[in-house]
Amino acid sequence: MTDDIVVLDHGALLDGRLRNTALVVVNNFDERRSVDLLVRLWRSASVVVLADGACNKVADMFNALGIIDDLVPHAICGDLDSADPDILSIYKAKGVPVISAPSQDHTDLSKCLRVLALWQPSKQMECFPERQILNLERSDQLPLHVTIFGAFGGRFDHEMSSINALYMFRKWFASLTLLSSTTLACLIQPESAVSIECHPKRSGPTCGLIPIGCAVESVTTSGLQWNLSSHRLEFGHLVSTSNALVSSTVTIRCSAPVLWTVEINSST
């Protein structure tokens, strides 16, 4: 571990103030509770990609609000087994690329993240055929902070798949955040200390540190009601759930990747 500190500004993310952001929308979200947060994230994002299962919900919700012509995704991606053909036609007419990726070895979320990586400067991505059908122009060339919206609230296996994506793609982007109308989660890496800037009104108080994938031999925190001091986290032993924020800044040092989760209030 180095002495560098990685800052994750979740307050700016929830406010729509974070720069160089990308939004991936998947299917597990409650339209009634999510609309304000989703619209705020969408308007602030440099790039928006819809998983094919999400385009039905998004189109119906935005059409009801009268904003379907204002908020248009940059791409729709997936195996296209759950997308309404009429809705796909609407988006195609708006110039949205619809990328069919039928492989069953990858989830629609992972397919979206692979497509999203094309918007980042990388020589490794130049050979991807999708580059020829996507509008890849961006005003900047910095790595993206990616939010996966709709990651919680549906089937448990889908939620676990979203968490797995944090591990699979953790080195592809500047940051990866899972989000729903009630929960935010991200993977804390062991290479550096991490400082999380929480939203003073929209974050917490309940939070937790979950050792998914392996035991974490040492976790040290500040800013929590029950701070950890070189504690070992492992399923079957100690797992830090139902902890609470006592500060808008939380610092975490860990010896292995650990999942940070905090409740959010999307209505404020």
Automatic annotation (TrEMBL):
SMART domains: TPK_B1_binding. Its EC number is 2.7.6.2. One of its GO terms (molecular function) is kinase activity. Keywords: ATP-binding, Kinase, Mitochondrion, Nucleotide-binding, Transferase. Gene3D superfamilies: Thiamin pyrophosphokinase, catalytic domain (3.40.50.10240), Thiamin pyrophosphokinase, thiamin-binding domain (2.60.120.320). InterPro entries: Thi_PPkinase, Thiamin_pyrophosphokinase_euk, Thiamin_PyroPKinase_B1-bd, TPK_B1-bd_sf, TPK_catalytic, TPK_catalytic_sf. The keyword ATP-binding applies. Pfam families: TPK_B1_binding, TPK_catalytic. GO terms for biological process: thiamine diphosphate biosynthetic process; thiamine metabolic process. Pathway: Cofactor biosynthesis; thiamine diphosphate biosynthesis; thiamine diphosphate from thiamine: step 1/1. It catalyses: thiamine + ATP = thiamine diphosphate + AMP + H(+). CDD domains: TPK (cd07995). Residues 199-259 form the Thiamin pyrophosphokinase thiamin-binding domain. Belongs to the thiamine pyrophosphokinase family. PANTHER family: THIAMIN PYROPHOSPHOKINASE (PTHR13622), THIAMIN PYROPHOSPHOKINASE 1 (PTHR13622:SF8). This is Thiamine pyrophosphokinase. It comes from Plasmodiophora brassicae.
